[in-house]
Amino acid sequence: MSNQRVPASTSYLRRLQLVEQNLSLLSQSLRGVERECLRVTGGGHLAQTPHPAALGSALTNEQITTDYSESLLEFITPALADPAKVLESLEQVHRFVYTKLDGEYLWSPSMPCILPAEEDIPIAEYGTSNVGKFKHVYRKGLALRYGRTMQCIAGIHYNFSLAEALWPLLRETESGEQSDRDYQSAAYFALIRNFRRYSWLLMYLFGASPALEKGFLRGRAHQLEELDAETLYLPYATSLRMSDLGYQSNAQARLAPSLNSLDSYIEGIRKALDTVYPLYEQKGTTKRGEWLQLNSNVLQIENEYYSSIRPKRVAYVGERPIEALTSRGVQYVEVRCLDINPFMPLGIDLTESRFLDAFLLFCALEDSPQFDSGECDQYDSNFLAVAKEGRRPGLELCLDGQSIGLKAWASELIRHIGQLAVLLDRARGGEEHMHALAAQQAKVDDASLTPSAQVLASMSEHNESFVQFSLRQSRLHAKAFREMPLAAEQQQVFENLASESITEQVRLETLDQEDFHQFMDAYLARS
């Protein structure tokens, strides 16, 4: 592979030099993690119990909530400058939760456990406030549109931002008259475009879902192979979660908001929020007074848009995400394509986090031409190819209409990302980022070191089905967390958060004066 595959342009080298001259700003980057995981029984079945009251209110506890299902927990860390502190926060949440689980486990991989009948997968409940009803009805709409089974897939979301003070410095090196706010938004969209170009690499390095429980497909047609009587897989897959078996939508198949600017992106999202989709319209919004979905549009709300990465801005209370982006621009990005690593108690470790930081910094600084019409199809094809057969020897991807070997391209990308890893190590001290890159290069050199290969190898070594393997890992993690309880003071902090969240939910329910129809009319009017 020639060095021209990832060109070091004059503008890129200028940005690199500016960052090198302001190394202290690199240590001010923020990252946070959201980890989803199913609660399961000792036999590997989906827990049918309500969200544990001892964990607080799923509506108002900022660190412990639920995603789609009452059984699908979501743990949220604060955004911090030190990735080690982020993972320490995530670990503390896990340790607290395990003091409140009665005979249940946190499921170790991304793909689901043994699921009950579709109609018996419990949709998350958030109480009687209008905000709580809104969250519940939205999830009912997801069930109506995509089915409950698909909503039980779990993942890791990685939120990342560069120091706010870095963007004005970078803007001064560019031509143009953009404001700091507009330049920052444009720069984040440049990062997002590069992420789309190169995110197949993350599937290869961190994909950890090459197999699944046979019942997950509910008898649907598929091209998977049978590993055993209970398990389906693809021999070279890295992430079935992110393949075309995952969260799919015919309505969203036509939705491709432009990633060339914030304005064009918002225009595309607004169109989806305002466009009725005939099939959803046929199903109706309410039936005999019961809400079935928030509306019959392509998207009920912004968060329904499925993407491997999203531009984000923290919204004010009562403010819609699209309003926040429109008024104040992009603040950070949310990476959504990461599998949970079933060998890791937290589903992610510091080595992965450090590589992600270097990768995202590379995406932010590298030249990022705007997308031509249909250009994303090439990147989507690369991504899907790696998700389904990324470990196949000799696999080739497409770059600028030409075939290129995965290993050659991956090695070249890692070499270029290494320039940013060096700067991150200089900013923080030590060599941890370079060690993280070396660990990823080893996976490129030897596919058996990838998480997806190790999952299949472990199942083979222990003669286990997917469920047996996953349950064994879940029990190992549970044992580890329970053997290192929180200090009494830290335990009490979580107890207080849980108690205060319940009080806050009651307060919200007491304050509501308008009925839900009025609430929805006011909310939708703000789109």
TrEMBL record:
Glutamate--cysteine ligase domain ranges (all copies): 20-385
GO molecular function, one term: ATP binding
Signal peptide range: none
Keyword Metal-binding among record annotations: no
Taxonomy, superkingdom: Bacteria
InterPro entries documented for this protein: Gln_synth/guanido_kin_cat_dom, Glu_cys_ligase, Glut_cys_ligase
Catalytic activity: L-cysteine + L-glutamate + ATP = gamma-L-glutamyl-L-cysteine + ADP + phosphate + H(+)
Keywords on record: ATP-binding, Glutathione biosynthesis, Ligase, Nucleotide-binding
BP GO terms, sorted: glutathione biosynthetic process
GO cellular component: cytosol
Enzyme Commission code(s) on record: 6.3.2.2
Pathway(s) annotated for this protein in UniProt: Sulfur metabolism; glutathione biosynthesis; glutathione from L-cysteine and L-glutamate: step 1/2
Keyword Iron in record: no
Family in the record: Belongs to the glutamate--cysteine ligase type 1 family. Type 1 subfamily.
Protein name, per record: Glutamate--cysteine ligase
